Fold these 4 entries.
Entry 1:
Amino acid sequence: MRITLIEKGVPYGTSIVDLSRMEQKKPEYLALNPNGVVPTLVHGDRVVYESNVITEYLDDVFPDLRLYPEDPWERAQVKLWQAFELSFAKDYRPLMYQRLLGPIVRLTRTLDEALEIARRSTTNPFDLEWERKVWGLTVLTPDEEHACAGRLYQRVSVLEHALAASDYLVGNRFTQAEVSVFPRLRMYPYVQLPITSARFPCVAAWMARLEQRPSFEKSLFESERGMQRLSDTSVVPWLAARLKKARPNPVERAGLALAKRFFRRAMRGGDTGAARRQVSQKSAAKFTGTHAPNGAATPPTAAPFVAPFALHESPLSPSSRRVGILLRALGLSWTSNPVDIARMEHKRAEFLGLNPNGEVPVLRHGERVLYDSALICEYLDATFTGGERPSFFPSDALTRAQAKMWIAYDQALHKEWRPLLYQSVIGPLLRQDGSAETVRHAARQGGLAEGQAEWIEKAIDGRLLSSKEEELARAELLRKLERVEAAIASSGYLGGSHLTVADMAWFSRIEMYPALGLPVDATRFPSITYWLERLRALPVFAP
């Protein structure tokens, strides 16, 4: 986000959010960003969260230098790379806590101290249980840690292949795709995953070119430079290995004591306050500047591309369902290609050739292939609305960003949703239809990435979540509905006063809540209950 601001010449200020103290979970920060992640942008009285929503908002209100292409297909390709980068986070985030933040927190605080500091930010049992895992260095098992690292390197291999034929990711020119993907790769060494020119020559050359741009250089905090220098050493992995030992030897104890003094001073702010930035993934930013009062989103510039649609989907996927709702709302017909996610078909080579993220849905529009439900919906809306077909995305930049933030709020549920789906729906389904052992055997025979066979086996055996973790996940998913309830009670819809893709997204999600043992009762959620009834009465929401 800082790179985008600098590229556009927009002045901004920065407020640091300390992830090691769970400051992203403080009530005052959650009032800005209910997902409890960074970054968040405050622009006057406007608040925008989720990095890709922020950068598109900036492109709309500061249009002099466009980083998103105007052509709907090229714009979709930028967003495909953004979706690709977001998929990194599913593996990067737990690995960062396991390999970087966990050792630092464990070294500098007792468990009681860590929990006391966390309670200053949050009393949510789900968050406090996470802090226990971070301190205990049990966010991932050794096998899971190894599998995460393998998948993260596999994603770099996909990028290497794409850059073999082009200097840039989209249209062979600098776009927001570079701005979105580069920072994640720059952070790879933080979790002991160096990107070398010997292994990834095209990616390394691309990163070197981008680092020469003034915006990339100026976006770095001094603390980030320090973290980069630290990641070039073996200090953090050395700490993690010694902290796990029951009885470190005298030399190791002396090294730990020295490191403890250094990091404790740094975590309190130290001489320069840099350590707080070192443990911040990104900053929450605010800025002032002249902007267009409405900032209308970029309209399509070409006639719609005419070709048949094929949707690779699963009935167990809310994301598949919402794309089907929008296709129907736009009066478009399509062929359905079922993907059996219970048998992990979405993680096998044939499907990964369509979507390297290994998730449904995938939409094929002629020779064009799109994945990630949010960008599929944006592409369809940008390409096929106008005239008699109403748009399901608001045209005003702020209202449009607000609708997308609701979609981001939905997408942030994956941490709780995915394991609960496999534990409480898919595992029992496989056991009940008698195919559990067949699926287990097929998973063991290969064809799945490291860790995925273990995932489906744990689902079959009901071991993905402990009973406590399952209870916390259900409570968290229901708690997040409270914000949806308040918004619908206020305006009748999520995207304002009219039906938008935000409503389609949350309808498809809430529709599946009961299947996961999550009651959406009228007493607790009266506005959601009435809203569901109204939407179910519309033909486009038919099953």
Note: Residues 242 and 248 are 6 Å apart (CA to CA).
Entry 2:
Amino acid sequence: MSKSRARKILDLHKEMKNCPSRGNWENLWHECMYFSLPNKDRVYDWKSGVNGEDKYGKLYDSSAAHFNELLASAFHGMLTNPATFWFGLTPSDREMAKIPAVRDYLQRLVRKIHGILDNSNFHTEIHELYLDLGSPATGVFLIDEDDEDVVRFRAEPIFKYYLKENFKGEVDTVSCEMQLTVRQMIQKFGEKNLPKEIKNDLQNVMEEKFLVVQMIMPRKEAKRSNLGPKNRPIASYYVVHEYEHIVKESGFSKWPMATPRFMKSAGEVYGRSPSMKALPDIKMINAMMQTVIRAGQKVVDPPLMVPDDGILGRINTTPGGLNPYRSGTKDLIIPLETKGNPGIGLDMASDVRERIKQAFYIDQLQLREGPQMTATEVNQRTEEHLRLLGPILGRLHHELLKPTIARIIDIMKKKNLLPGGIPPELQDIDVEVHFTSQIAKAQRMGEAQGLNTFMSLMANMMQIDPSVYDMVDPEGLVRLNAEIYGVSEEIFRKPEEVEALREQRAQEEEIAKQQQMNMNDAEAMGKVAPLIKQGE
């Protein structure tokens, strides 16, 4: 049975690896990474294990690599900024969100998750993933358990992995290959799990490498009631290819990785990136800069016109050098003026570079130089630019950040790290993720403007009929605005504190009212007393 299952896993891996379009994708990844992510361009030689090559030496222009780094840095700062709380949690039932205990617990959970992320390698690895999204367009973000940091992240290049989608267009099957020595397999899987052929000759093959295939896929026969490693809904297998032997079988409750795509065309598994869109211009500017450099060299150090048999010895072109020539001849060494103009080439290259910049959305992420603007105008223009990134943002939320948070919560459950005191209302309620990063808030500014317009209309209506304000829940309005602007729940007082303040205010108003009545009575008595005295 184990042999048969291993063979099926290897057959599926072979099918994914030999997909007819895979070669086209690898060629495209290589071209894009060669120009825009050269340090990570190892599409065809990653198995060799040789590192340290000079990846920029053959480039004549590094604009694409620079813009890709700017795009990755912008995503890091605007989507997953380590200095802010960039996501929050709410119950799927919106009525539950009104319960103070539920809001307080979810706020504590969000704070703890952010603490785990900040204490792990999340921010270093997520930046590497953003670099991949701008070039090969598809990233692989592994989310593993860790004994020290709770969670450990690893951004892997897509060319090491093979993906398969389900009918929803979601990646649900992933395989990869790795070369492991027997010693490494013992460390990772244990000696007892090795194929018998290896165990029988262990001393002689300790440093020999074998191909191991890892396959992560849905487990059809999973028993939801039994969440043991071999009965969880997502299966993980390690198979030694040469012997068709499963050395490890386990499973996950949540998908253990994120496989985001920058953009994706219908019918394709792998993504499309700004580098792919700008690839013609990227190739062009490299060819143009090569020509401009040659033209500049001819102007700065032009070729020489030398008379035939008029110069004695070899020509000396060093500064202050002497070139003796035959006595009586008038033939001299003169430069060959080609009338070349490198400035025209630089102007043309600048236009191409601007198109590459636009392809990487740098115009949306950075304000252009222009007339002086007020702070309000700057904020409005920034929000307008960020709203143009809505489609990309939605895909990254769905394929990267939500799976990452779900996986972290699953690991926290397994390690009993969830905050104590879970409200009974949350026991059987799904929790939804909402994002509060700068770029996510920009998408909701239209909603905030709608609320402001509504309140202005309400103010006008109240002048006609003040009772219309009774239709609005002021507390709900305040909390909705706080959610849109990403304001933390921590600024709000607890319900019992609010109730105590209101009771205190009511008492103070009652005391003030009583004091006013007493003063009015005293004043009235002061006016009546002289009349009474006069009557006597």
Note: The mean pLDDT is 83.
Entry 3:
Amino acid sequence: MNWTQIQPGSVRLNRLRADAALDGYDPYLIWADLTNFAGFSGLPKDASGKEQIPVAVELVRNYVPGDFTGVFAAPAIYRQARFCTGLVPHDKLVAFRALLRAGERFKLGLPAIPQVDTQPRNFAPAVRPVPVVIGIIDHGCAFANRAFRDPATGKTRVKWVWDQDRNRLDAGRNAGNHWQRVRELGYGGELDAGRIDALIQSYPDESRLYREISYEPAFRDRSHGTMVMDLACGGPNPLRHVAGFPNADPADNSRNFEGPASTAPIIVVQLPYRPAKDTSGASLCVHILDALHYIRRRALNFRLVVNLSDGAMAGPHDGTSLLESALDNFLAASQRTSLVVAAGNGFELNCHARQRINANSSGAPLNWRVLPDDFTDSFLEVWLNRTAGAAVTLSIRPPGAAAAQTVAMGEIWIGDRAGTPLCCVVAGRNSPNGPGRGSFLVALAPTRPRSRASSPAPHGVWEITVGNNTGTAIDVDTWIERDNPALGDTGPLRQSYFVKNQAGIANTGTVNSVATGAETIVVGGFYGRGRLFQEIGGASRLTEVARYSSSGPGHPDAGNRYDGPDVSAPSDESPVLRGLRASANRSGSTFRMDGTSVAAPIVTRRIANMLSAAIPPPLGQVKARLQIDHAKTRATVELAREGAGRIKPGKES
């Protein structure tokens, strides 16, 4: 592999070539630019055919279109907002950055979104006056399932579905004109309750219904989003079996064990899934922020509980990422919205390392195993503490290479073979995704590129070593980004990992990197019948906490929080009966799924039920109401994984 340092103005750069200083750009954007966006979904084009680049932005002022004429356009929903998403013409990135003031930042968000729709807002909200609306942001939401219909009228409770697929309104995928344009955001397509009811009546066969509207996420028999929807707001289901839920009695019309959430209106946002689901979480900054604004607008002034069982593993983990800052800003300003987030499943994945590196020395090498047959890019992020100086380096040695390449802070190096970029290291003194902290991004091309003409990145063990040339010790966290296949995908997406039994490998600090902000409600997982198993086996007894459930604490630099999940909920029946059983895509069918993804919607249901009480708690007190201290004597590591309380379904208070 040949290594080349990338300087400002380098001919290897495409859209960033004109900038005199590359430090401070999102490192994922630099990698995308060097590879001409080869590892990302295609860029949208405007009416003239010019490519547009989607970004999420934080401003120190409110967004005013006239301040960014020709270089950036945000959807209409973001007028007078500090945090927004939008599009930058591909040849205007440098001009856009030049307009940003001190303290302002932007981050790449792909899969891409198409040109902003400038038509005036004109929509008729269909949510009827009720105490609580439940929002679901997920993948594969089978909205026609009977679990989401009103049992008395047979009408759908799903008031809106927004599919964020940027090609949703293409003629070949919207032949019946069922999907409508989302005017405030300008991409994807939506269905309202009236259209959903008409489709259900016209196509009683749900498989045929989804084919009629080309809704590929529900073609398969099961999906992540449908399971999450059922646990959060599905109606009575005698087949659902969740630890703590009494078995449903079909003759019992009170539904007390499921509560008002079983009849609440639902608003669904389907995250982008074409050409494939982005399992790394790289595009979340754009699409989750857009989804929240969409749901909040459609829910009008009613109380709103939103479930997000998605996330990423890499990031600063101190609450300062652009998305987390935007979420905190949104939730603090919206006194009627709660956002429930899954803690993540990274506890046993060997994807996090924490090292203290003494002055003028190097840390122990980290052996990063990258698997063969991976069609996707692989990413590793190294984050320094805020006191770390600029004299920090990263050395990287590819599999089989005799020597390592050393990259100093502020530099960019790319490794290639026969002109094909295989690896890139971007060293940023002040990352836009974690202001005030230096970081390194290591990006690898696929080890099995889809084109046989392209060279594969080497698979095997990559050696990563951080050098500290400063006069004081520094703390370093290294995270490998998520690359596991989505539910139902056959791959071959392959999760890379650190070789086991190395010094520094840590299962603490593995919580979802979207979940370390101050305002979200973060949910870990436990075995519903774990205590029974814990009481047998003595010192080697099984833990009650789900073995995979990610752990706090967050990074020590996080001043606002983060010790661990706020609460935990069942994610499995027991250590031997994995997962929970709930609705599959077709009415009446069920399947099992485990993970904190299924624990989070149980808490979402509980919050919806709490807020539907005759005298509901103020939204600002929801988290405190959930955090019932279940056992103060538990070991610290368990508290870092379980939070302050366990939520048992059906035990409303």
Note: DSSP finds eleven helices and 26 strands in the chain.
Entry 4:
Amino acid sequence: MLEQMRKSSQSLLIYILFGIVIAVFIISFGPQSRGGGGCEGAMGGDESAAHVGGQTVSTQAYTYAFRLMGGGNQPAQFLKLRRFKEAVMDRLIERELLANEAERLGFDVGEEDVNKMLVEAKIVGLGIQRSVPRIQKDGVFNYDQFKNFALYDLGLTPERFVQQQRRELLASAVRDFMRASVRVSPDEIKTAFEAKNRQVNLEYVRFPSRKYEGEAEPTADELAAYVKANEAKLKETFEQRKAIYADVPQEARLRELVLHPTTPADEANTRKRADIIIGRVNKGESFGKLARELSDDEEGRSKGGDLGWKRKGTLGLSDADDAAVLEAKPGVVVGPYKKGDNLALYLLSGTRKGTLAFDAVKSDLAEERLRQDKAVTIAKQRAEQALALAKAAPDKTLKQLFPGPATESTDTKPADGKPPAKPAAKPAVDARAEETGLFSRRGSIVEQIGDSPALAKAVFDLKPEAPLAGPVEVAGSFVVVRLKERKDPDPKELEAKKADLQRDAELVKWNEVMTNWVKARCQEEKAAGRITVNRSVLKYDDGQAPVPYEPCVGDQDGQHRSPS
């Protein structure tokens, strides 16, 4: 039939008919195709990419889907990062499950069904309907353009294309069948309308746990206990990082205390301050404690001056001073040394060099884990304190309660060289309140704050008489929110837009039905041994083995399920 159409392509009618066949070709492999994992299949072979419920997905079908989804134009590492080939395989499996169901239900796709669509230069690719002007010339189907597109862009003959297109249209028939069966109640419409049109504006304060790692300093006893209780986990971490512990150059574990002269002429007084600090350390005070209280470097102050392991050329000092610090005797304060416009004191607690064994780094690994754990506890405590302060002052906004850390005046340093007095710490005042602006519910996303199902539900239940929620953990931070403004939907708008709202609600529900059906059927067929995948087609062109892949476990996205 295709050869006949080619020979008679002068006829307008034949042009149209052949255009139909061509469009069918394109459908199967549309850019939204959810087909299999590789583009290595050759045009001439029948090697399978997968078997789904008795049907074979050829490597040609996979190649077609892969290329039309844009996989042929991207580097292997980019595709691998996105798990692109695995996504293609997921989509092809879904198509076959739907097409098999269509045959079981007795659906049939005839040539007239294809012609009716393609006369209008439209195709369907895995549920997405689209136009295909590329296979036409001056608005009429052109065989040569179609043939070149099929052979060189997609790697399929027109006959193979027709086979694939039939599977696509069968799958679309089941999608449409399920779409027609979906109904939503008036209550569902109202709920969807209110969810979409109710808006809130929030004030919030965020307490990121990483911010408190500096003050979450574990004691020697805590480190020893953690190493003893978690040695297996620490060894596992060591093995994962083993490469960074090989051939380590000379390094020193350091603390730093930075002093900032008020003016260039004030350097003498600043050196006197440094001498006072050295004297206090020599009398037994903790360098880390003094760095947390007296350092003029905000980040260093929060960490008790801890710099971790440092090597030559990383301190921002002159070569001579840098060498003096790295060669200092452990436990002895050295300096002050010029560091830009500042002066800096250092305390070395240990050195290391060469390829490090587990015993040499286990305390560092334990310290890292303990700091993280303790920082989470501190962040939660600060958030709880913030919530308590907000509850105790219901007439104040969060912005009034939490304007941000106060900036210390630089003229508070006395001229006698003694360390300036530090204001007493107040719980939870180190946070700065922010505002989201008005936003509507959008799944589990809370505007400006992040993804949290618990918080997303809570904030839309807030009322002026009960405006506070939290603390809730969101992406490593604890958050407290206060309702600033709430806009409820207008019931009159619900009545005016009921038809549109019903259609939108049905589409949402249909997508849920489709997602659940595909996942359940896929798992059922896999359990029966009726889904197998040739994992070699999932191999990326990076010289590595195919990535792990298991069908029926990936997230299903419904963006391709527009009615055809």
Note: Residues 1-45, 407-419, 421-428, 556-564 have pLDDT under 50 and may be disordered.
